[in-house]
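User: Predict the structure for this protein chain, please.
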Amino acid sequence: MTPLRARMIEDMKLAGLADKTQEVYQQAVRGLAKHYRRPPDQLSEAEVRRYLLDVREQGAARGTFKTCHYGIQFFYRQTLGRDWPLFKKIRLPKQKRLPQALSHAEVQRILGNVRNPIHKACFALIYACGLRISEAATLEVTAIDKINGLLRILGKGNKERLVPLPRPVHDGLRQMWKAHRNPRWLFPNSWGTGPLSTNVLVRTFADAAQAANLPAQRRATPHTLRHSYATRLFEKKVDTRVIQLLLGHQSIATTAIYTHLTEPARASLHQLLDKLMSGL
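Assistant: Here is the predicted structure, written as structure tokens:
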């Protein structure tokens, strides 16, 4: 590891960036350096501008361009102290694609083609609770609140939220855990030394989606399960603000969860989700 990269990692830790964010920011800077075949601290503002323009003109998705831009911007602003005017001019491209969602039957077809029980349980939980793949893969056993039927999630920016855990899925997790009994990880890797790799989960899901013979226009990924969860709730007329809280799209204090998810609302959600997520 170069001293420059080590310093950037230290800066990201000081800034409180999540591990996944640190990873994609490093990828962004590596991509820049690879493009010019020179250390990034030797590049000019004009060269960085040209690179970002190329990324946008190549049709990069909004999320891809966003992480590329923010990663490079962090490196130059925070690690090198170069607050170039360039970074004040960039605007993110408009999102043109609407997120795809699968029907409940399509989700069941995909999960039916997952042979590994730990992988299958992880995908079921992503769908049943609207999780990001990184949130699900790194869940610890203590994240489950058995008494209240809730799941404690540490999301983007280390923001914490609570989501209802449907009883059918909770029962399936209990049976799965009894088979591996890892003292820490809900979804351990093959050696039991750490959590499942998200790359492994992505490959497993791709194989299962292909085996499910979905329509050609369907581009199903693990993140599609999260979109599908939100779609199920919208279909059932769940309040938009509640869905935003469950997905963790807004920065809110933990107490705000209890303010909006009052006891009647929480009970209603539990009943709805228990019914929706049966048969996974």
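Confidence is low (pLDDT under 50) at residues 251-262.
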